Structure formats: C-alpha cells, structure tokens
Amino acid sequence: MANPELPVPGGLVLRPFRGVRFAVADLAEVISPPYDLITEVGARDLLDTHPNNVVRLILPGRDRHRYAEARETLRTWLSSGVLVADESPAVYVYEQIGPGVLQRGLIGDVGLAGPEEQIILPHEDVMPGPVADRLALMRTTEANLEPIFLLYDGDGGAATRLVDEIAASRAPLVEATTDDMVRHRLWAITALDEIALLNEDLRPRRALIADGHHRYATYLALQREHHAAAEAAAPGRPPKPGARDFGLALLVDSTAYPPDLKAIHRVIPGLPLDEALARAGEAWRIREYGSLGEGLAALAAAAEPAYLLSAGGAAHLLTDPGRERLERAMPAARSARWRALNTSVLVEFLLPEIWGMPDDERSVRVVHHDAEAAVRLARESGGTAVLMNPLEIDDVLAVASHRERVPRKSTSFGPKPRTGLVLRMFDLD
C-alpha cells in the first residue's frame, strides 16, 4: 500500500510510513541502544546475543566498505524474512515502561524544517565527523535505521489522549523486555482520521531535539541533496515532497511524560590529574574529598559552575572561579543563560584557558551518565575525569528558544528510544 499524500511539511507534521520490523522469536535480542551509546565491547556483546542484532546495521565497523556492507546486510535480511515491511503505512505508538520509567510517544516521518523556521529546535552543536558518518550510512542504505528523539509541549492534548487510549485498550504489535527490565511495546495507527487528528494537534507546536542532533543534521543534508537534484532536473520548479523531506522520529509530549535529563561527563586522557589540579588552582577554589561518592554529593550541592576531578581515589571539587578572568573568556555575544551553563564554561574557559586544549573528539572523550566509568577510563588512560551536574531543562529550552546551541554533548535526555523496533526505508515511502 502506498503512503498517503498527506500530510505534507508545514508546521510540526508526523506522516505515516511503512515500518520495517524484525520477525524474530525474541525481539529483545535484536534491538539495541542508540548507536552513540554503544562501545566496541557492547557491540560484540549484542552480536553474541543474536547475530542479526541491529547493531550490525547501525555500527557496521571501521572498514572502508562498511557502509556498503550495511546495505547488503539490510537487503539480505529483507529478502530472507529477518526483516519484514508492514503492509500499511502507520504512525506508531511506542511505550517504555519499567522501574521508574513510563514514557509514551509517536514514531513516524517527521516533516523536516531548518532551524530558521523555529519548528524543530536544535539545542546542541554537532561535529562534522559524526554527521559525515551518518550521512554516508543513510545515503548508502537509503534508510533511517533509528529514530531521533523529539520533545514537544503538548499540554496533554488530543494527540496524547489518543496515544494513551491506544496503549490502554489495544493489543500491541510487538513487545520486548530488555536487560534493564524496561518493557517496550509498539502499536500501529493506520486510520486516516486518527492520523489527521494527531496532525491537527501537532501542527501549531514546536519540538526540541532531545537526542539525535547529528542524525537530524544528516536528515537536512539528505534533503538538500534531494532538492539540488530536483532543481537540476527541472530548474525553477519546486520539488515535490518526497522521502528525503522527512525523517524517522519519536515525538513525546513532555507535559504528559517529563524527560529525565542526565549528565555527560568528560575524560581527558592527555592530562594527568596532578597537572589538571595544579593549573586549575590558579583560577578555581579546590576542595578534596576522600571518595568519589563524597565528591559527587558535594558536586550535586555546589553552585554552578562546578566540576569534580578524579582519576581514582580522592575526588577534587572545583568551584568559585575567578570572575574577572571567567568573564573575559566567555563570549560577550552569547546570552547570559548560555554563558552560565557548566558546559559553556568548560569549553570556553576551563579547557582552553586553564588547560590549554580544545574541546574536540581527539582531546576530550565523553562518558554518558556513569561517573564511575569515567573515572575508570581516566585511570586507565593516565588522564583526568571531569564529572559534571546535568543541565536544567528550563535552561536548555531557553537557550534553544534564543536560537543558540549548547556545546556538544551537553545533554542526555531519556529514556531514549530503543533502536531496531521499527526502521524506515526510503523506497517504501
């Protein structure tokens, strides 16, 4: 069944698509976390669990032929029945429920909009390397293999009421329980009147990119390629909306299902802890704590900006930077809200001015959520872990609404959608 010619982009729009899903006995064995949360060891563990785990598609390795290999794997799984396309286009209801977790939202084709349109708001900078990687993967496979995560202030409106009604009263297409004891369930909305109701509610709203900035930047790059090709084929004629004017997304009403915002810590392998502390002492107040737990408790209670440095053993809290020196380092053109963020102070002052290094992927590694893992990595690399408090959601929203972006890897919203529940192929749209 072809995808209906409605709705088209213009406002916040979620279009139905023919989802591609795994046809396996235990879905939990073939789904995964988002690609940028998976380590090399984690990828091997996922493939040891099931040879057809989706990680084989989203992280196909480092070989120069890896993107073509992902394409061939995808085609093989489709031809062999490991993956099967749904008969009818749908918008999917997705529920995550477990200890301390309940989130429901909608998975569909979101209509793409540039930042200047103020429909889909980015809040975080992106790096060219990950965008190039995801662009090569999407271009080669002609697929969106995992959804981005969008939040919108729906105020519990018609779309959310329909989502909740479906989750409470209809049998799911599939369900799976992952190792973290979170149950994932999926329903399909195929009725055109229900899809129209969703979009009537969504169209006037705005969405914040909670997770997937690099993938959204990739969506926009694919759209630009599509428009350029259409212009070359028919100069002066507006391109007809197509598959590359949309991207796979999970859309969650943050009023009904408030997100969990966690910290992303840094590890600097080339900076020994003693040296980090000696340099920081020129501009920061430093207090020592006997254990990581004591230090983290002090960090949580500290006024921002504050950082906890450790490489195992004692932990050292940095607070109260010299204000004159800090003010000189922070960009005057930025808003006061942006200049006060702990990640902004890190990338504009602590890293370059105090430690003499840039905030790039080669010099600074990131560890999501897990302070102990960051400290282990620092100890193993002879470097320093820089542990941070999570940003406040109101600060992130204020910065995004001001058309600014927080520094890279400033936020980790959750719960993130599991990858592999539903995939999107361009040639099925």
Explain briefly what this protein structure is.
It contains 14 helices and 21 strands.
Structure write-up:
With 429 residues, the protein is of the alpha+beta class. It folds into two domains: 14-260 and 415-428, no CATH class; 264-389, no CATH class. Helix content is 35%, strand content 22%. The protein has helices spanning 40-49, 55-58, 66-80, 128-141, 158-169, 192-202, 213-233, 273-280, 292-301, 323-329, 336-340, 342-354, 371-381, 393-401, and strands at residues 14-15, 20-22, 83-85, 91-98, 101-111, 120-121, 143-144, 148-152, 174-177, 183-189, 207-211, 246-253, 260-262, 264-268, 285-289, 307-310, 315-319, 365-368, 384-387, 412-414, 424-425. Strands 1, 4, 5, 6, 8, 9, 10, 11 and 12 form a nine-stranded mixed β-sheet that branches. Strands 15-17-16-19-14-18 form a six-stranded antiparallel β-sheet, sandwiched between helices. Strands 2-3 form a two-stranded antiparallel ribbon. The longest helix is centred in the middle third of the chain and has 21 residues, at 213-233. It starts with 13 loop residues before the first strand and ends with a strand. The relative contact order is 0.17.
Helical residues, percent? 25-40%
Supply the helix-strand structural class.
alpha+beta
Q: What's the overall average pLDDT, rounded? A: 94
Principal-axes geometry comes out as globular
According to DSSP, the number of beta strands is 21
Strand portion, in percent? 15-25%
Give the count of structural domains.
2
SS summary, helix count? 14
Stretches where pLDDT is under 50 for at least 5 consecutive residues are 1-7
How far is the first residue's CA from the last residue's CA? 10 Å
Q: Give the C-alpha Rg.
A: 23 Å
Q: Can you summarize the main beta sheet?
A: 9 strands, mixed
